[in-house]
Amino acid sequence: MVEADEALRVIKRGCDELLIEQELVEKLASGRPLRVKAGFDPTAPDLHLGHTVLLNKLRQFQLLGHEAMFLIGDFTGMIGDPTGKNVTRKPLTRDQVIENARTYEQQIFKILDPEKTLVMFNSSWMGEMSAADLIGLAAKHTVARMLERDDFHKRYGSGQPIAIHEFLYPLIQGYDSVAMKADVELGGTDQKFNLLVGRELQKHYGQAPQVVLTMPILEGLDGVNKMSKSLGNYIGIHEPPNEMFGKLMSVSDDLMWRYIELLSFEPLDSVAQWKREVAAGRNPRDIKVMFAQEIITRFHDKDAAVRALADFEARFREGAIPDNIPEIRIEAGGGPLSIVQALKQAGLTASTSEAMRMIEQGGVKINGEKVGDKALLLLKDETVVLQVGKRKFGKITVA
Amino acid sequence: MVEADEALRVIKRGCDELLIEQELVEKLASGRPLRVKAGFDPTAPDLHLGHTVLLNKLRQFQLLGHEAMFLIGDFTGMIGDPTGKNVTRKPLTRDQVIENARTYEQQIFKILDPEKTLVMFNSSWMGEMSAADLIGLAAKHTVARMLERDDFHKRYGSGQPIAIHEFLYPLIQGYDSVAMKADVELGGTDQKFNLLVGRELQKHYGQAPQVVLTMPILEGLDGVNKMSKSLGNYIGIHEPPNEMFGKLMSVSDDLMWRYIELLSFEPLDSVAQWKREVAAGRNPRDIKVMFAQEIITRFHDKDAAVRALADFEARFREGAIPDNIPEIRIEAGGGPLSIVQALKQAGLTASTSEAMRMIEQGGVKINGEKVGDKALLLLKDETVVLQVGKRKFGKITVA
After folding, report:
1. Spatial separation of the C-alpha atoms in residues B54 and B34, rounded to whole Å
2. What is the pLDDT of residue B101?
3. Tell me, what's the pLDDT at A127?
4. pLDDT at residue B338, as a whole number
5. B191: DSSP letter
6. With the CA atoms of A124, A127, A132 and A138 taken in that order, what torsion angle do they form, in degrees rounded to the nearest 10?
7. Helix (H, G, I), strand (E, B) or coil at A285
8. CA–CA separation, B58 vs B224, rounded Å?
9. Partner of A1 at 20 to 30 A CA spacing, among A69, A240, A306, A365?
10. In Å, how far from its chain's centre is CA B66?
11. What is d(CA B307, CA B305) in angstroms, rounded to the nearest whole number?
């Protein structure tokens, strides 16, 4: 049994808010395994590292002896968009839900212990619920309180329509906690309101209210926006080892520590030790390599991680990328910048025509990969290592 | 078959709003019997004349060949108060609902033709409805539109709580129209918003929207407040003939015409004729007698009506109440006034002590009935005939 203080320290690692800490202390002191809930969308089972922040927290609870409840919110998914306005949001069939659940399981058990994980579907209880029961549920919350939720508040204030069923969804999410007898619910910071509804409803139904633990939304590779597939700043957990490695090595040193806090399974003491070492002069690149190895091992295996490192180092040796590359900021006036412009502005070529010629000759590399396309664009806030010929390097950030 | 113009004239008799008249004209022109809905509370089957305004309108539709759908809203009644705050509003059991429906039937068939009346219970369809279906229903309306309803608007504006299920009730009432395939829905003016929700939902469900016909809320005997049991200004349809007669004879001449418009089954042409006669000098009392006879015949029978009239006239003859009694307004400063004070202020006795002595001697009558109680109070806005001894009369209104 882990000491209570240490358990609390592990649970609070990286978390944004813990409501209410004293209640969690008491629940932990009870000695029984706590039921820890986290809800997931039934439609998008293609996970990236951003999704794993919650899974990692569930895993920490498992390691402390508690039970992870992985909830698939399939009930509303099977309803689809009841307004009928969003034709692309088709109702999921039961078969699709089961298929998606399988895809989830293949991914989440790279993180979670299957023995201590309950995969649950809220259609199990919501599908049985009658209209009369839902009315009873709706009676337990007021319109004014619901309109306090940030997004509802903004939409109502700006005259954008809110369909009435949208007020029912937070109640259903809250009722899930009642049906699951959750002791703790995890969610992103954007879920705080809904998680608190769960607390209220549990009290109404005579249960001790769940502890609410919110985790930050993980930043993407740009270190600015949230990690998301549509923004292209993500690392999918199915990506090939070399791509994962390259992407993880490309993150800034600041973002590296953030990722380690939220994504590494290494104990806090080790992380603290690394920070001291870097402060004392150790190259943060060493830490980044260790962390990238850990992530690749998790989602592929140890061999793949070792090979990815070897490949990466081979490319560096071959390309003889020096340790200290000058960092250059280029102003692009807010828009994307062509690689040809970037090479010229960074002083790596004397002119845009030289830049084009060097690309044609295969003499330009971006992050160690040969550039074949002269029309390649660098996005705002993107940081890349550009190499021209054998010796000219620049770590370019587009501003 | 009644002419279309005449049918429309009958339907519009006494009505407050008709939305949309052109649609009604088209529905009437179709020649098929229309399905005419009116919803009633499952808890209060003790009817007074105020409740019968809608029933009378249903009857008019029946006489025009249409079908009356008498809807008992038992679904929400069986839920009770889901907030649990109103402990006096206990959920109705199915047995109570059936019992209340029987009591309704005993009363409404004094007005409606049982052959052309469907008594319906919304629990028949709502009891079968799942939570998922109710979500679909809730998706068909917006929070902003619901907050436009007058009472919601006021409560939200003044910070009084609105529980979320209250937003579902108008939707359920509207869905009743879908389930019932209503062509027309009748309701009080206070129901207009909910009746319009029915129109919207019918469109969503691919039905032609119902025509909405609102009827005014009937004033009580005071001619000011709405008729209600708690205000004591009502005529219950089970009251004994003599009481009905006395109360109906006590209403002002203005209110008499109002009652005739909303409560009499006499054709509009006859009513117009009476008005002309009164304008030409006929005593409105004659009309009042005819109307009171009609109402008593409806809720008791012809004999009872004849006897009530005879009793009333005998009391008048015996008391020799003259035809033209002076009308006297007494200021009571807003509160009720004791009969003793009233007698003095009206000049029917010289002092309050004389008033008390006359009452003790049995020499004071109120509306032809001997006054036994010196503590009797006259309410604000009440109009009564007071008599002292054989000859002193006053028609007293407390202001």
Report:
1. 16
2. 86
3. 92
4. 87
5. G
6. 70
7. helix
8. 25
9. A69
10. 22
11. 5
CB–CB contact A171 B162 (8 Å): no
Shortest CA gap B205–chain A (Å): 12
For the residues of B315-370, what is the DSSP string, one character each?
HHHHHT--SSPPEEEE--TTS-EEHHHHHHHTTSSSSHHHHHHHHHTT-EEETTEE
Contact residues for B369 (Cβ-Cβ < 8 A; gap 6+) = B315
The C-alpha R_g of chain B, in whole angstroms, comes to 24
Asked if the Cβ–Cβ distance from B164 to A171 is below 8 Å, we say yes
Burial grade of A161 (CB within 10 A; 0-12, 13-18, 19 or more): middle
- pLDDT value at B62 more than 80: yes
Could you tell me the two tokens for A37? 């809930």
| Overall residue count recorded for chain A in this entry | 399
Q: Give the nearest partner residue to A129 out of B130, B139, B163, using CB atoms.
A: B130
Residues in chain A within 8 Å Cβ distance of B142: 161-164
State yes or no: cis peptide before B108, omega within 30 of 0.
no
Asked whether B268 and B299 are in contact (CB, 8 A), the reply is no
Which chain A residue's Cα is nearest to B79?
A: A132
* Cα B133 from Cα B119, distance rounded (Å): 25
pLDDT at position B320: 56
Give the per-residue pLDDT at A319. 58
Q: Which residues of A touch B78 (CB under 8 A)?
A: 132
CB count, 10 Å around CB of A350? 10
Q: Which of B47, B1, B46, B53 is CA-nearest to residue B28?
A: B1
pLDDT (0 to 100) of residue A169: 92
Name which of A135, A156, A165 is nearest B139 (Cβ-Cβ).
Answer: A165
Tally Cβ neighbours within 10 Å of residue B375. 8
Contact list in A for residue B141 (CB cut-off 8 A) is 163-164
DSSP one-letter code for A345: H
Assess whether pLDDT exceeds 90 at residue A4: no
First to last CA, chain B: 50
Q: Which of B126, B132, B162 sits opposite A144 (nearest CB)?
A: B162
Tokens encoding B173 = 């009432």
Please name the residue that has the structure tokens 């906690």. Answer: A177
Q: How confident is the model at residue B317 (pLDDT cuts 50, 70, 90)?
A: low
> Which amino acid would we find at residue A331?
E
Instruction: Say whether A115 sits in a helix, a strand or coil.
Output: helix
Task: Kindly state the percentage of chain B with pLDDT values over 90.
Answer: 58
Task: Give the confidence band of B322 by pLDDT, cuts at 50, 70, 90.
Answer: low
d(CA A304, CA A309): 9
- Contact list in B for residue A89 (CB cut-off 8 A) is none
The pLDDT, as a whole number, for residue B319 is 58
> Any chain A CB within 8 A of the CB of B179?
no
Distance in angstroms (rounded) separating the CA atoms of residues B289 and A286 = 106
**pLDDT on residue A324:** 67
Amino acid identity of residue A235, one-letter, is: I
Cβ of B164 and A142 within 8 Å? yes
Which alpha helices (DSSP H) does chain B contain, by range?
4-12, 21-29, 49-63, 74-79, 94-108, 123-126, 131-138, 143-147, 150-157, 165-180, 192-204, 241-250, 253-263, 268-279, 284-299, 302-319, 339-345, 352-360
Quote the pLDDT of residue B318: 62
Q: In degrees to the nearest 10, what's the CA dihedral of A241, A244, A247, A252?
A: -120
Span B206-252, pLDDT tens digits: 999 999 999 999 999 988 899 988 888 999 999 999 999 989 998 99
Place of tokens 């109702």: A91
Q: What is the pLDDT of residue A23?
A: 95
Which residue reads 């028949």 in tokens? B124
